Structure to design on (472 residues):
């Protein structure tokens, strides 16, 4: 019989992706002993199968698209991308799917790493193989999500791509069907169409990026179509099979589509099905509900940080939550009472509610923060949408010929602040942080007039937005 080893720490973190790493960083900075448990690669989904590899694939695509908008440069970049070189650079960004550097970082902050599948085996207790880790103060679960596949007969035999396959493939399939209309679907359709695949995008809803303002999905769909992709909205998959290596898709209208691979980008599910939630009175496979300090409802020791709490499924937002959770765990360990914790304090992830930023790295880029018009109205705010065509901004014309883009700000008419901002256009992803500061800081419209944008930059869209609000 194998002897069980028991080790005690102040904090045990289950999951060593960017979210778990940030929790550990904050608790170690506060002097708390911390163990981190990981069953796969340290660095998690973002480092190896999501944020980093996907953006490494997309960066050459967007750079080439920008170059083709410039006379004097366009003719020099008319040829196809060097797909093997793009994939090699992507591989470099993932460290060829090795985590040595991330492991060294865990060691550098003074945390202990345990490799293996960790499961809760009772309050304040995580078991990894033959080792039991006991937490004096807190267990933080940061196990993230996995791709959710639809319930289609025979789908497993088709061997469909998920987001992991789409970001790690070592060659471009000749024909690729992408099912979905969200961020993963649109980004991967953009990437693989440019890298040599003939992409067919099947979207069940009326348009793309349905969580953003409608014009965002419209502009992205227009650009994908211009790039050669076949974008079909209002289309569902009725069946899918693989015959002699060829994927055969039958739509709800009976149309037959053949491809070499099929990517399902149809949502995410929490990785909580096999982490022992039942041992602490919670339901396996469920999203975990938390308060603003990221503590699981009904507990005084368990925290759920990142995607698994379903507040905002974005790496940067999960890292923000991790910093908040780490601060809250450390404060409570020191005896601080956070019962009366207030919004926007060091221990409350207030930004999760109405000021979440996101960038979709398509061509054009789509960036948004805060509430859309429909969301603001549903929340009961008295608002007005202010729209500007980016062609009215001098910096857009300089950026490239025939620049297409649009900006919208949602103005709260009672408080004269911004509830949300959306930018769609080439090169606008870097502009969203200015909007995030305006929304989070609830900067009054009257004060924004004094934030003078440099000329001639794309940021001058702020002046055009303010003028449109004033004059209409």
């Amino acid at each position: 019989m194998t002897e069980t080893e028991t080790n005690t720490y102040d904090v045990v973190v289950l999951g060593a992706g960017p979210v778990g790493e940030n929790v550990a960083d904050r608790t170690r900075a506060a002097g708390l002993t911390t163990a981190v448990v990981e069953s796969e690669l340290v660095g998690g989904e973002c480092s190896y199968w999501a944020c980093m590899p996907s953006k490494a694939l997309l960066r050459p695509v967007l750079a080439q698209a920008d170059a083709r908008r410039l006379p004097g440069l366009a003719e020099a970049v008319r040829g196809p991308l060097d797909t093997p070189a793009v994939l090699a650079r992507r591989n470099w960004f993932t460290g060829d799917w090795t985590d040595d550097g991330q492991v060294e970082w865990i060691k550098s902050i003074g945390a202990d790493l345990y490799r293996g599948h960790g499961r809760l085996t009772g309050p304040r207790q995580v078991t990894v193989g033959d080792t039991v880790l006991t937490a004096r103060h807190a267990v933080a679960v940061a196990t993230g999500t996995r791709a959710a596949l639809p319930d289609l007969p025979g789908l497993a035999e088709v061997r469909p791509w998920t987001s992991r396959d789409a970001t790690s493939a070592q060659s471009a399939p000749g024909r690729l069907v992408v099912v979905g209309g969200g961020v993963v679907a649109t980004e991967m359709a953009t990437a693989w169409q440019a890298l040599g695949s003939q992409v067919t995008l099947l979207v069940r809803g009326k348009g793309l990026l349905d969580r953003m303002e409608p014009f965002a999905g419209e502009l992205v769909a227009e650009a994908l179509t211009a790039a050669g992709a076949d974008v079909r909205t209002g289309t569902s998959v009725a069946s899918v099979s693989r015959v002699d290596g060829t994927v055969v898709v039958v739509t709800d209208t009976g149309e037959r589509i053949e491809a070499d691979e099929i990517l399902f980008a149809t949502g995410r599910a929490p990785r909580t099905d096999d982490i022992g939630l039942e041992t602490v009175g919670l339901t396996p496979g469920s999203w975990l509900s938390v308060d603003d300090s990221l503590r699981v409802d009904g507990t005084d020791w368990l925290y759920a940080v990142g995607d698994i709490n379903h507040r905002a499924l974005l790496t940067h937002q999960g890292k923000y939550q991790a910093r908040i959770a780490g601060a809250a765990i450390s404060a409570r360990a020191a005896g601080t009472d956070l019962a009366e914790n207030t919004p926007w304090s060091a221990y409350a992830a207030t930004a999760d509610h109405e000021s979440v930023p996101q960038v979709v790295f398509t061509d054009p880029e789509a960036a948004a923060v805060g509430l859309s018009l429909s969301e603001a109205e549903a929340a009961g705010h008295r608002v007005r949408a202010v729209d500007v065509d980016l062609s009215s901004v001098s910096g857009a014309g300089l950026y490239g010929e025939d620049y297409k883009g649009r900006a919208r700000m949602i103005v709260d008419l009672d408080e004269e602040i911004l509830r949300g901002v959306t930018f769609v256009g080439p090169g606008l992803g870097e502009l969203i942080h200015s909007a995030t500061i305006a929304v989070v800081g609830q900067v009054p419209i009257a004060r924004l007039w004094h934030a003078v944008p440099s000329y001639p930059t794309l940021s001058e869209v702020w002046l055009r937005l303010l003028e449109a609000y004033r004059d209409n």
